[in-house]
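Example record

One chain of 237 residues, shown exactly as stored in the release files.
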Amino acid sequence: MNKPTIILLLILTFFCCEKRIERIDIANQLRGNTFNMTSDSDNDTLTIEFKDSTFNVYEYGDRNLNWRVATFDNNNFLVFDRRIMAIKQNNKNGFDGLLIAEKDYKIHLEKRNAKWEKELLYGTWIEEKYIGTDSTDFPPPPIENIKSNWPPSYTITQNKILFDFYQKTESEIEVNNSGEYVTMDLKNPIFYGTTENLWQIKFVSDSLMIVDKQITEFQHSSQQEKELGGIRLIKKR
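Predicted C-alpha cells for this chain:
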C-alpha cells in the first residue's frame, strides 16, 4: 500500500472515530413546558411557563413576557424580560443556567410533569359554601337584577370560563401543560370591582376541585392584589 493511500485512510479513520457533539434545540425543549425555577442564592421556588414566544411567572403575576434563545459558538443563551442567562441541559427534565448581571446567579430549571388530565377541569362547578343553602342566606343581587341563578356556578370548557349568577360573565382561559395553572380575566359580580386572574389547582377529581385564587380588587380609583386559598368547588352532576 502506497504512502498517499495510508494517509487518506488515517484521515478517514480520524473523522469516523471523532465524537460528535449533539446539538440540543433548547428552545424546543422549553416551549410548551412549565418548570420550577430555583437559585443557589435564594430559597424561593418560582413557577415559569414557556409558551411559543412568551412566558409566565405565576408567583409574580408576570404574564405574556417575551423570551427567546440565542446561540453563539455552540453556547445557548436564554433572553427573557431583558435578562440574559447562559443555559445548558443537565438531564431529560432539567437545565442549569447562569443569570448574567452585575452579580451572577446560578439558576436551575426542573420540568413540572402533568398531574392530571386537563379534561378533569371541564364542567360546571359550584363553590362548596353554596351547596344546600338558600339565596336568602347571602346578600341579594343589585335591585336592577332581581332574578339570579342559584347557586352561583363556574362552567369551564377547553378555552373559556363562564360565571353565572345574576349576570353572566366569561373569559378566555389558558391552562398550562401540567394542568395546575389557569389564567383568566374573569369579572366576578358577587364582589363589585373584582377580577379573577389566576387559579392554581391544588387538587382535582371527577367530583372535587380545590383552588387558590389570585384576584384584583378595584376600589376608590386604586387596585389591590389578593390571594384566596383553599377554595373548594363541587362538580355539578
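Notes: Helices lie at 3-17, 26-30.
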